[in-house]
């Protein structure tokens, strides 16, 4: 393959094949964005159904059983299949460029990670059409999930297992990339904050996903293969699941929110035109949050009867997390302070994020006080709290990041006007939906409740909440319209579209060449591109002469390996049913496909190819570096 | 202890110097290997002598931990330069695993 093959216009089928086999981090980022965006819409539709059901008392828009399925799938979809892949999209699109790398360390595994996530998510969502979705809540507590009839929980356990493998691979890949593939001069303390947060979040993935894997395997064995880890009547203990789940689950929220912090830490300096205030304390706070994130999981379980000593320890540890988070908040404010501020759409999201997230943080500290938590537990106060941190932190980060990095990923600029409409609709809707839920919770409305009665003072609050949800949905619809219009007009904006890009990714021509950097750049400090700009240069100083670039070949194997596990999961799920003799063969065939593809990959030598120096020189006029 | 690897491209590290270092390294490996065998013998002896299980289990675990450290530092070269990142991640993993096990044996009631 040569440059010519890449510059040729492809037909539709050719493009699809290119994306099915790609190992390029920029294209995998787009796949993550598409798949994550799709699941975000699915999760959003589920959220709308919840709010329609709860808009008026005694509603019967959905049945109680279906409502349980909807809330379970809303939570599971939004966390595992929307927020994580969307963040992975930005990590893939931005992080290798920010550290001056030509790709991630293991491009093949990067593709494998995506396809595993995708097939896991697909498997989970097929439950809607194959006898009912999981209905034990996104936490799937064992006493409830073991008693759940049908195959819903099996879909949950197997689907998350498959997509969890993908996430784990992605996390390890990012870690190796950041440790080994930084450009000359890019020391750890010169890495942009988004790279740092990707690094810490990936380390959290590395340590947090194995407990989930173990817990899910135990659940799979309990439900499908007759073991009794969580079954009290067989000598098991249902609490073990809760511990495993939250040892994973609490770091998981930091896995999600840290990259969002990273995105904001890029947006603030860019549009305040000031260097990030307190860079080293930001790095310190990020690492400390990652560390403390593992010491607090039991605050989700204060009411399970851990005893006063354990509760006290976990309460204090939880409150301690407010300190590094506070450091970050003040640093962001001081970054804006005295800056030459430009209120673009990403900056609006970033500015709105600060108060929204602080509100979620404050209610978090309230719940960290164990005695008070006995009152808040399982009420709408909790629902309000975690939506404030997740929507106010992560979703605002994703929306801001989407506008900010859109030119980097697609070469076009989303409409600022429509972006501002989305922003206003979404922010107003968000606060309208969730602020009132604090008070609904304090008035005694339990979480996960299907409906409520008249005359208990809950009607107005729930109606307001549902109206707010409609605003958020409108905002997202405007965003989708914005995306369609922007891509249809396809106005290419070129290099450094925000004019004030500070980090390496903005130094590249647009669209980014498939080999990223013709010559690896020399990094001379924090905000490497900004430093060059201050000296009147328009591009980075190269750190090496132009030479051959080694590139990986595309491969269809990641898709096949993931497809095999997807097929095997059906066999594992149905093998215990009466009259389903086909299940075991399906399980075996699926595993054979997976292991066969892995064997093929191992035996067949694939050394990739080289882009030769001459082609790079030829490429100069066609979007090369010079 | 830098550049002990024979393929080190550093010209300053002379052949003689590397030879000396290798000899030192070899001696340490032989010593630790002997000690590891000795520990294994002690572990079997402790079980064979029929001590109380409250002594044997922690004692054998302790010997196992020491052997893992020997393995990592003397046979897998973790004491050499350039292993900071693996060390950081291994110790982080050990801490997380330790906290998990501690929690499981202390605050989960049966």
CATH topology of chain A: Cytochrome C Oxidase, Chain A
Q: Which radius of gyration of chain A do the C-alpha atoms yield?
A: 25 Å
Assembly of the depicted chains: heterodimer
Residues in helices of chain B, as a percent range: over 70%
Annotation, overall tally of beta strands of chain A: 2
- Give the CATH class of chain A: Mainly Alpha
Shape of chain B: flat
**How much β-strand is present in the residues of chain B?**
under 5%
Q: What structural category do the secondary elements of chain A indicate?
A: mainly alpha
Description:
- Chain A: Its EC number is 7.1.1.9.
- Chain A: It is a multi-pass membrane protein.
- Chain A: Belongs to the heme-copper respiratory oxidase family.
- Chain A: One of its GO terms (biological process) is respiratory electron transport chain.
- Chain A: It is found in: Cell membrane.
- The complex is a heterodimer of chains A (626) and B (110).
- Chain A is an all-alpha fold and 626 residues long.
- Chain A has one domain (20-555, 606-622): Cytochrome C Oxidase, Chain A (Up-down Bundle).
- Chain A is built from 20 helices and two strands.
- The model of chain A is unreliable at 1-5 and 622-626 (pLDDT under 50).
- Chain B is an all-alpha fold and 110 residues long.
- Chain B folds into two domains: 1-79; 82-110.
- Chain B has three helices and no strands.
- Chain B has helices spanning 15-48, 53-75, 84-106.
- The N and C termini of chain B lie far apart (50 Å).
- The chains are: A mainly alpha (626), B mainly alpha (110).
- The interface between A and B is medium-sized, with 18 and 15 residues.
């Amino acid at each position: 393959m040569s440059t010519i093959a890449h510059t040729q216009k492809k037909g539709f089928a050719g493009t699809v094949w290119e994306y099915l086999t790609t190992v390029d981090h920029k294209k995998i980022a787009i796949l993550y964005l598409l798949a994550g965006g799709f699941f975000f819409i699915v999760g959003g539709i589920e959220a709308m159904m919840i709010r329609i059901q709860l808009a008026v008392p005694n509603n019967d828009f959905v049945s109680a059983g279906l409502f349980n399925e909807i809330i379970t799938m809303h939570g599971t979809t939004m966390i595992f299949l929307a927020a994580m892949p969307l963040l992975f999209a930005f990590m893939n699109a931005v992080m290798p460029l920010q550290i001056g790398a030509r790709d991630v360390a293991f491009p093949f595994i990067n593709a494998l990670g995506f396809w595993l996530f995708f097939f896991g998510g697909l498997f989970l969502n097929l439950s809607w059409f194959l006898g009912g979705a999981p209905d034990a809540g996104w936490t799937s507590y064992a006493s409830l999930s073991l008693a759940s009839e049908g195959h819903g929980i099996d879909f949950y356990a197997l689907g998350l297992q498959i997509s969890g493998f993908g996430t784990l691979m992605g996390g390890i890949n990012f870690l190796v990339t950041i440790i080994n593939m930084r450009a000359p001069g890019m020391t750890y303390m010169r890495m942009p904050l988004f790279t740092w947060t990707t690094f810490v979040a990936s380390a959290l993935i590395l340590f947090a996903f194995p407990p989930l894997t173990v817990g899910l395997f135990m659940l799979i064995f309990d439900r499908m293969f007759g073991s009794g880890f969580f079954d009290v009547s067989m000598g098991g203990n249902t609490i073990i699941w809760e511990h495993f789940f939250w040892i994973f689950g609490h770091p998981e929220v930091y896995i999600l929110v840290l990259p969002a912090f990273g995105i904001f830490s890029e947006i603030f300096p860019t549009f305040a035109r000031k260097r990030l205030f307190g860079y080293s304390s930001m790095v310190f706070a990020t690492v400390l949050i990652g560390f403390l994130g593992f010491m607090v999981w039991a605050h989700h379980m204060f009411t399970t009867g851990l005893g006063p000593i354990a509760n006290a320890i976990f309460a204090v540890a939880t409150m301690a997390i407010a300190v590094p988070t506070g450091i970050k908040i003040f640093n962001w404010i001081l970054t804006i302070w005295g800056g030459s501020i430009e209120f673009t759409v990403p900056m609006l999201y970033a500015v709105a994020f600060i108060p929204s997230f602080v509100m979620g943080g404050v209610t978090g500290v309230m719940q960290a006080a164990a005695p008070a938590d006995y009152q808040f537990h399982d009420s709408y106060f909790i629902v309000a709290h975690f939506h404030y941190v997740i929507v106010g932190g992560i979703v605002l980060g994703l929306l801001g990041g989407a506008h900010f990095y859109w030119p980097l990923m697609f070469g076009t600029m989303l409409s600022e006007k429509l972006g501002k409409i989305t922003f206003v609709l979404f922010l107003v809707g968000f606060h309208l939906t969730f602020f009132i839920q604090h008070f609904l919770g304090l008035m005694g409305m339990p979480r996960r409740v299907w409906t409520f009665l008249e005359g208990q003072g809950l009607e107005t609050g729930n109606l307001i909440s549902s109206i707010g949800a409609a605003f958020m949905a409108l905002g997202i619809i405007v965003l989708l319209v914005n995306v369609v219009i922007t891509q249809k007009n396809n106005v290419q904006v070129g290099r450094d579209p925000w004019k004030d890009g500070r980090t390496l990714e903005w130094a590249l021509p647009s669209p980014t060449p498939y080999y990223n950097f013709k010559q690896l750049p020399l990094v001379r400090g924090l905000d490497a591109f900004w430093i060059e700009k201050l000296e009147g240069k328009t591009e980075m100083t190269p750190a090496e002469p132009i030479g051959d670039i080694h590139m990986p070949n595309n491969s269809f194997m990641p898709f096949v390996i993931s497809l095999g596990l997807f097929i095997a999961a059906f066999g594992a799920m149905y093998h215990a049913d009466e009259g389903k003799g086909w299940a075991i063969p399906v399980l075996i065939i699926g595993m054979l496909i997976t292991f066969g593809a892995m064997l093929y990959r191992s035996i067949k030598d694939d050394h990739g190819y080289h882009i030769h120096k001459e082609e790079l020189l030829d490429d100069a006029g066609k979007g090369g570096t010079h | 202890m830098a550049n002990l690897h024979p393929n080190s491209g550093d010209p300053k590290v002379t052949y003689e110097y590397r030879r000396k270092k290798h000899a030192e390294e070899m001696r340490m490996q032989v010593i630790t290997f002997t000690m590891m065998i000795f520990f294994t013998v002690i572990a079997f002896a402790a079980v064979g002598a029929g001590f109380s299980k409250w002594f044997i289990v922690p004692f054998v675990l302790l010997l196992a931990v020491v052997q893992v450290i020997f393995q990592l530092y003397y046979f897998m070269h973790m004491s050499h330069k350039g292993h900071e990142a693996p060390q950081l991640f291994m110790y982080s993993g050990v801490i997380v695993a330790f906290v998990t096990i501690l929690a499981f044996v202390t605050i989960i009631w049966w």
